[in-house]
Amino acid sequence: MFEEIGDDYVVLLRMHYLIANQIDIKGYEDFAIDVSNYNNVSNLYLISDCLVTDYSSVMFDYGILKRPQIFFAYDLEKYEGELRGFYLDYMKDLPGPITTKADDLIEQLKNIDYIKNEYEDNLNKFYDRFCSKEQGNAAKIIGDMIHNEIQENL
Questions:
Q1: CA angle 21, 26, 29 (to 5 degrees)
Q2: Which of 60, 134, 143, 146 is most buried, most CB within 10 Å of its CB?
């Protein structure tokens, strides 16, 4: 990946906590930056041009931005059949392309503008279905509900 896109891209790696300590990026620090311990993932979304994920629910949070997403599902058959399954139709409902091979992922990253255009309808449908209700004040609403419930029961 570094050889193919290293001159044009910086990759922010926010890895699952079970593998965050298992990946060595020595020698690639100018290309791949480990942000696994960065405390506010929302800031990372805002500075990114594209999300690469697998099955993570980060797709819903990132979907609010209507930016390209690529799904790197290198273990798709195992995940779908043996591990967990999906909470949506993984093959139809995603707002971006699915790839199972690293070479294909690199090619997709080279063509982010194409993906943005090609998957615009998917992105909009995904946004309308999963993100359009987000107003940025969900925590306040829940906090107010809890506060009102406590006040009523005093």
A1: 100
A2: 60
In a domain, 103, yes or no: yes
For residue 85, tell me if it sits in a domain: yes
Take residue 126 and report the two structure tokens written for it.
Answer: 């995904």
Indicate the pTM of the whole model.
0.79
Distance CA 61, CA 23 (A): 25
**DSSP tally for the chain: helices H, then strands E:** 8, 5
Q: Which ranges of the chain have pLDDT less than 70? A: 76-88, 90, 134
Q: Alpha-carbon distance 132 to 124, whole Å? A: 10
CATH number at residue 140: 3.40.50.12580
Q: Looking at residue 25, what DSSP letter applies?
A: -
SS3 content of the chain, % helix, strand, coil (to 5): 45, 10, 45
pLDDT digits (tens, 9 = 90+) for 41-60: 999 999 999 999 987 889 99
For residue 48, tell me if it sits in a domain.
yes
> Which residues neighbour 126 within 8 Å (Cβ) at sequence distance 6 or greater?
59, 63, 93, 94, 95
Residue type, 105: L
Would 16 be classed as within a structural domain? no
